[in-house]
Every structure is written in structure tokens, then in C-alpha cells.
């Protein structure tokens, strides 16, 4: 308890806001939905994994900060249950739909967030995938530029785009079998035409929906052990700029960070080593994300019970260890406390408008939203 008390006292100085909420099961996902709502989902192996839409604390909807707030300041607005673990969840922009994926195969489940007179999130359809049996769960991304689309796949040769409502296939990547057997670590829409695929080996591939036969390989990952697993984080381009103008961050299971400019793939923008412990046996919770409202800032989690925030603007290509500007330790000291093992942060995400506000969830069911105090001399 002494460590927890000390952390609480430090929080009065380090945080502008800190809100906590205890969920009933380990939570893997956080997704912003319409109306500044937050969607979360469980990933347990038994039936009945919850999918919830939460109303955030009122301070997240205003510009004022009110300091530390009591527990359970999120409100459950509606919810449902998935018969399978939910390993990925995405809100479909400009709709009331959610898309999820998870074991035991690469199919997708589509959910309807009910109207205001109901508190139910209900399953409405399943998007089956060709040769999906035996494949691992699908990584997914969504967009509504032309129609509600979902980009999904578990391997490089299984990537496709499906129209969510009609379940019609609108794009399939034509990739040679010799190159396409690699497992995917992440995928993303850069815009309605450009797709970015990150293999678990760290290799980046850029695809164009207007040219199904083309697949441009970006700079490969730094040389690393074969067992190393990679994921990526992309940042939306500013209005009027090219989607490929924003750097891509890749994170490995041993904490290596590689920044790449897709317009110049012959070299790395920067290489650094995150200050994280040695990885365990799995890398399923690796997460790296760019701050949408702070230039050059990114966050890293999935190694332990912390979230690290870095300012990349001074990084070079040396690969030396980077110093985080902030470390959130709240899940270690402020969780449910019912588990013997220390909690593991399973995911984090940035607030879309508040520059230094993040949400994070952990394996003990704790959900935190926090805003750190900006160090002296820093921007923002």
C-alpha cells in the first residue's frame, strides 16, 4: 500500500486529470465512437465477452480540468455480448456500426449500436472470409470515405476490403503466394485508395485499391531476431496534405522503434529503443500510436503495466535508448487489485482533441483516462 499511496501523492503533481473505471473482465480494446463515446470489449476465452459503449467523464467533453476524480465516473450507455473473444474492434465512421474480430478464425462480426430508446448492442451480421478456417484472427481498419468499408486480413495474401452493410467484397490484394504467407501485425487506411500493411516481421507494404496488382514494399525492418514481432502506428494527414506525408512508427516486441517517411523509403527517419522491460513470451498487446494533436509525440504500451509517452522530434538514426517524457503507472498501483500477477496494459488510445489526454486499459479490467502535466520548456 505504501507504493500505491506514494503514487497517489505524485499524481497530484503529475496529472491534470485522472479518472478510473473498473470493468468486470480483462479489456483489450478502446475505440472512440460517435458523440465522443468510448467502446470497450473483453477478450476472455469463455462465452459472454462484453461489448460496452461508455459515456466519458464530463471533463473530457469540456476544456476545463478538475483534478483527480472519483472512481466510476464513466457511465455505461449500452452493451452486448460476444460469443467469441474480441481481439479487435473498430467503429465504422458516420454510422452506428461496430466491427469486431477474434479467435477462432478470421471472420468479422458486425454490431448495431441501438437507438436512444434501447441499451442493447446487437449482432447484425457476420462477414465470412475465403479460406478463413484455420487462419488467425483478422486485423481490421474502417473508413467511410465512399461507403462504410472494413479493411481486414490475418496474412498478407488474405487482405481485402468489404462493404460493411452489403458484405460485398470491393477489393482483394493480389499478392504472390511466395510473398504473401507472412502474418500481419497491423493494417491501416491512409485514405480511401491507399492501404498500409505491416507484417509481423516488420516489413511495410503499400497498396493502392485502384491498382490491385501492385504492392509497393517500403523499407524493411531493422535486422532483428526471427522471433521478433512488429506492429505499427499511423497518423492521419492534415487536411490538404498527402496521406503518405505523415511518418509511420513501427514497434518491435523488444522495444525497438523505427520511424519511416513513405515518400522516402530508402532510409529511416529515426531509430530508437523504448525504455521497456524485456518482452515475455507473447507480443499480442503491443501498441504504438501517434498523438493526433501534438506534433512528434507517440505512446507505447504492451510490455508491462505502464504507458510511455515519447517526444520523437530530437531522435536520430543511432538506435539509442530514448527517454520518455511521461510514464503512466496507474494500472500498477490503482487497479482492481484482485489478481496476483501485475496487470498488463492491453491497449491505449489518444483523445482526438485534447493534446495530452490518453485512455488505457489493462488485463485486470481497469480503464483509465489521464492528462499529464506538461514538463517545463516543452511545447503544447
Write the layout of secondary structure elements.
Layout lengths: L1 H13 E8 L4 E7 L3 E6 L6 E7 L11 E2 L6 E8 L5 E4 L5 E5 L6 E6 L7 E7 L11 E5 L5 E5 L6 E4 L5 E4 L4 H4 L3 E6 L4 E6 L4 E5 L7 E2 L12 E4 L14 E5 L3 E5 L9 E4 L13 E4 L6 E5 L5 E5 L14 E3 L1 H4 L11 E6 L6 E6 L3 E7 L8
Parallel strand pairs: 1-5
Antiparallel strand pairs: 1-29, 2-3, 3-4, 4-6, 7-8, 8-9, 9-10, 11-12, 12-13, 13-14, 15-16, 16-17, 17-18, 19-20, 20-21, 21-22, 23-24, 24-25, 25-26, 27-28, 28-29
Q: What structural class do you assign from the helix and strand content?
A: mainly beta
Largest sheet: 5 strands, mixed
Query: Quaternary status of these chains?
Result: single chain
Number of helices: 3
Q: Helical content, roughly?
A: under 10%
Estimate the global geometry from the Cα principal axes: globular
Strand segment tally: 29
Strand content: 35-45%
Rg calculated over all Cα atoms:
20 Å
Question: Alpha-carbon distance between the termini?
Answer: 34 Å
Unreliably modeled segments: none
Average residue pLDDT:
84
Strand order of the largest sheet: 5-1-29-28-27
Protein model, in words:
It is a single chain. 6% of the residues lie in helices and 40% in strands. It is built from three helices and 29 strands. The chain has helices spanning 2-14, 177-180, 330-333; strands at 15-22, 27-33, 37-42, 49-55, 67-68, 75-82, 88-91, 97-101, 108-113, 121-127, 139-143, 149-153, 160-163, 169-172, 184-189, 194-199, 204-208, 216-217, 230-233, 248-252, 256-260, 270-273, 287-290, 297-301, 307-311, 326-328, 345-350, 357-362, 366-372. The strands form seven sheets. The chain has a five-stranded mixed β-sheet with strand order 5-1-29-28-27. Strands 2-3-4-6 form a four-stranded antiparallel β-sheet, with no helix packed on it. The longest helix has 13 residues, at 2-14.
Amino acid at each position: 500500500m505504501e507504493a500505491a499511496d506514494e503514487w497517489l501523492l505524485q499524481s497530484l503533481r503529475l496529472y491534470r486529470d485522472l479518472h478510473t473505471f473498473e470493468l468486470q473482465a480483462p479489456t483489450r480494446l478502446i475505440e472512440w465512437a460517435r458523440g465522443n463515446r468510448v467502446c470497450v470489449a473483453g477478450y476472455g476465452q469463455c462465452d459472454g465477452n462484453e461489448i460496452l459503449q461508455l459515456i466519458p467523464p464530463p471533463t473530457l467533453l469540456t476544456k476545463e480540468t478538475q483534478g483527480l476524480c472519483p472512481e466510476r465516473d464513466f457511465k455505461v450507455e449500452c452493451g452486448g455480448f460476444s460469443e467469441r473473444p474480441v481481439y479487435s474492434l473498430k467503429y465504422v465512421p458516420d454510422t452506428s456500426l461496430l466491427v469486431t474480430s477474434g479467435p477462432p478464425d478470421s471472420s468479422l462480426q458486425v454490431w448495431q449500436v441501438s437507438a436512444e430508446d434501447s441499451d442493447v448492442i446487437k449482432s447484425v451480421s457476420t462477414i465470412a472470409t475465403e479460406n478463413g478456417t484455420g487462419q488467425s484472427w483478422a486485423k481490421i481498419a474502417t473508413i467511410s470515405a465512399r461507403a462504410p468499408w472494413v479493411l481486414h486480413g490475418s496474412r498478407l495474401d488474405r487482405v481485402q476490403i468489404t462493404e460493411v452493410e452489403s458484405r460485398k467484397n470491393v477489393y482483394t490484394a493480389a499478392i504472390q503466394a511466395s510473398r504473401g504467407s507472412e502474418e500481419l501485425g497491423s493494417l491501416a487506411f491512409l485514405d480511401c485508395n491507399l492501404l498500409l500493411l505491416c507484417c509481423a516481421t516488420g516489413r511495410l507494404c503499400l497498396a493502392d485499391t485502384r491498382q490491385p496488382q501492385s504492392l509497393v514494399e517500403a523499407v524493411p525492418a531493422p535486422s532483428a531476431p526471427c522471433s521478433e514481432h512488429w506492429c505499427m502506428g499511423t497518423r492521419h494527414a492534415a487536411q490538404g496534405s498527402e496521406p503518405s506525408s505523415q511518418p509511420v512508427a513501427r514497434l518491435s516486441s523488444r522495444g525497438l522503434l523505427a520511424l519511416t517517411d513513405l515518400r522516402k523509403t530508402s532510409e529511416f527517419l529515426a531509430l530508437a529503443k523504448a525504455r521497456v522491460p524485456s518482452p515475455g513470451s507473447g507480443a499480442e498487446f503491443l501498441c504504438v500510436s501517434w498523438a493526433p494533436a501534438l506534433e512528434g509525440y507517440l505512446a507505447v504500451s504492451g510490455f508491462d503495466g505502464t504507458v510511455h509517452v515519447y517526444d520523437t522530434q530530437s531522435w536520430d538514426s543511432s538506435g539509442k535508448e530514448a527517454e520518455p517524457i511521461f510514464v503512466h503507472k496507474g494500472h500498477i498501483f490503482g487497479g482492481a487489485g484482485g489478481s496476483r500477477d501485475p496487470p498488463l496494459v492491453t491497449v491505449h488510445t489518444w483523445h482526438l482533441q485534447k493534446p495530452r489526454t490518453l485512455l488505457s486499459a489493462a488485463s485486470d479490467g481497469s480503464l483509465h483516462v489521464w492528462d499529464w502535466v506538461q514538463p517545463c520548456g516543452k511545447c503544447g
